[in-house]
Amino acid sequence: MIVKIREVKKTDNFELAALLRKILIEMGVPKKGTAFEDPEIDCIYETYNSPRSKYFIIEEDAAIKGGAGISQLKNEAYEICELQKMYFDSSIRGRGIGSLMIQKCLNFAKENKFNLCYIETMPNMLDAQMLYLKYGFEYINYPMGNTGHSACPIWMIKSL
Fold it and tell me: Is this model's pTM higher than 0.85 or not?
């Protein structure tokens, strides 16, 4: 089956929010202190509809199967971005989609003059961590910015 990567549309908000929360529950992510409770999860289009922000959707057979976003890291320097809300339905994992999405997000970050990319994740998301390491992310011992994700204890950074 062919997957399509495209920018998020306003009409995606409801379906995307439901999918992201379903994936977070499947992965055992706490509902408090993680993306699960982010108010932005219900309005991804509006959240990323600004300069230097972009959210990409993965679509297969006209259904949203996941996504990933890039935006300036809250309460950090102008040149620091964050790879955000990168989650995929189990039906498309292991097919190289994560690599495609990271490349797309990092290319957008470079085009928008970001120098560093930050990410937070959970200890049990080992496949995601392996993917981030493959793309040059390194572990750091402290959180950056103000993401509100107090339950995410794994922090990583990459120079762009």
Answer: yes
Residue of 123, 119, 19, 124 lying closest to 73 (CA atoms): 119
Q: What is the CA radius of gyration of the chain?
A: 14
Residue 58 Cα distances to 29, 74, 92, angstroms: 21, 25, 9
Residue among 44, 35, 52, 54 nearest 119 (CA): 35
Answer yes or no: are the C-beta atoms of 145 and 73 closer than 8 Å.
Answer: yes
- Please identify, in words, the CATH class of the domain defined by 3-159: alpha beta
At 32-54, the pLDDT tens digits run 766 667 778 899 999 999 999 99
Instruction: Tell me the domain boundaries of the chain.
Output: 3-159
pLDDT at 92: 92
How many of the other CB atoms lie within 10 Å of CB of 32? 8
CA distances in angstroms from 67 to 5, 44, 71, 89, 99, listed in the order given: 9, 10, 14, 9, 12
Question: For the chain, what is the mean pLDDT?
Answer: 91
Sheet of 154-159: strand order equals: 3-7, 54-60, 63-72, 80-88, 116-121, 154-159, 138-140
Distances (CA, A) of 87 to 6, 16, 25, 63: 15, 10, 12, 15
